[in-house]
Amino acid sequence: MKILKGRVIVPGKCRGEALSSKKPISFLGGVDPETGVIIEKNHDLEGKCIKDKILCFPHGHGSTVGSYVMYALTKNKVAPKAILNEKADPVIVVGAVIAEIPMMDQIEINEINTGDLLEVDCEKGIVKILRE
Amino acid sequence: MHLTREEERILDGEYGWACQTCMRILVKLGELYGATKLIPISSAHISGVSYKTLGDAAIDFLKAITEKNAKVKTFSTLNPSSIDPYLTDKLPRNLVEKQFEILKLYEKMGAKLSLSCTPYYEYIPSKNSNLAWAESSAVVYANSVLGAWTNREGAPSALASAIIGKTPNYGVHKPENRKPNIIIDVSFQPENEVEYGALGYHLGEIVKDKIPLIRGLKNPSLDELKQLGAALASSGMTNMFHYKETLKLNEKLEKITVEKQEINSVIEKLSSSKREKPDMIFIGCPHCSLEEIKFLAKLLEGKKINSKIEFWVCVSKHVKKQEKKSIEVIERSGVKVLTDTCAVVTWTRRLGVERIMTNSVKAAHYLPTMNNVNVIVVPLRECIQISTI
Lengths: 132, 389
Prior knowledge:
- The complex is a heterodimer of chains A (about 130) and B (about 400).
- Chain A is of the alpha/beta class and about 130 residues long.
- Helix content of chain A is about 20%, strand content about 30%.
- Chain A has a single domain (about 1-130), classed as Glucose Oxidase, domain 1, CATH 3.50.30.10.
- Chain A has 3 helices and 8 strands.
- In chain A, α2 packs parallel to α3.
- Chain A starts with a strand and ends with a strand.
- In chain B, about 50% of the residues are buried.
- Chain B has about 400 residues and is of the alpha/beta class.
- The longest helix of chain B is centred in the N-terminal third of the chain and has 17 residues, at about 50-65.
- In chain B, strands 12-11-10-13-14 form a 5-stranded parallel β-sheet, with helices on both faces.
- In chain B, β10, α10 (about 290-300) and β11 (about 310-315) form a beta-alpha-beta unit.
- Chain B folds into 3 domains: about 5-175, Aconitase, domain 3 (2-Layer Sandwich); about 180-270, no CATH class; about 270-385, Aconitase, domain 3 (2-Layer Sandwich), CATH 3.30.499.
- The interface of A and B includes residues 33 and 88 of A.
């Protein structure tokens, strides 16, 4: 079992399957707020649904309206269970705050692959990779 | 971050969910950027108003905030919406209604429906005052030209600051972070607003988030600086520039020289459609100043616009009201003077527009992706030459 450490941005605990990307994500225009499906063209997660996943990506980019899209995801019950970033940026931080999605940054995203079973503790700042 | 007792209470939810959420936004951002406290602001400028850019997701959040009766605590202006009275009959009813719904929510919060990207024409913030402004072109103008202090806020953080009346003290709210850290020597004189814009765009690409001291510009006008700053903010993350050579530098800084040729290639790169006739001409990105309106009236006096071209001049209600005579001259030529919106934040494709000519480098940056149109960037004089009979 691998253990990764990070910095807590929004507290919370959960366990779930990782959806991991090498690319930054823009929530505005990149994720459908109704379905939680990634719609950005040529994104490595295009077509994947983020609902109930532990969404891992380096950082956000694009419009700050993206934070509101994250709020809508929670409201529409298609939000990820947690967000793990390499480097927190204001769009994702504000989005995680208003959407109440547990979040950490300074996590080695490269260590996490899509499908890994993770236990995320956004209280202590620890991610356990239970099953690769 | 140090919070006062009152701020702690807001954070703990004693004043309800809306204020708590806004406070959490400010505290989290403050922590992220190393702020030590919250400081009062003299105004907020809120982006995220146009339904076209905002979509339904944001309406939910704005509704939740207003349902709890949250009100702005400081003078708060709003960015452009997606409609002007001229457009309400031309666009699908449901889009217009959604836009009105958004405006009502902001109105309920107590924000002023200024609906312009140039809040500084309506009220000039005093020098060295702290603001929380979104709208990157206004941020750069406030910091660089007006000498007021604001970070480049996003839509939610500007809203949160408006409701709390404060902002975290990081970034350019600290004097030591307002100093230039790269010198740009411009080896030529930009000849018109497009060249100023292209210079800004080029700088944004090379300086990224550094603050440039731009040397070599001889008496640029406020409008030329506005074009430079707007373009700088669209290609880069900088939130201010310096242009006065009297500025004292204590340390040796990296220097970059910019040649005319580089500016020409920026203009070429942004003009996707060469010399085909445009369906639309768009002036007013950022919204026109009084001087620009007067100059336009001078150029358009006695002229008629080709009826096949939709010619838009976008301006704030405030400026439109102040210069009625010039507006009459402009409208007599067949040009439409729109307030509360601009070509980038409305649905030009639904109006059948495929090719837009503009004198704004910022607009040229955003139009192809946000409006799915081809763009031609030329100075105002050329726009008028092409469109008048």
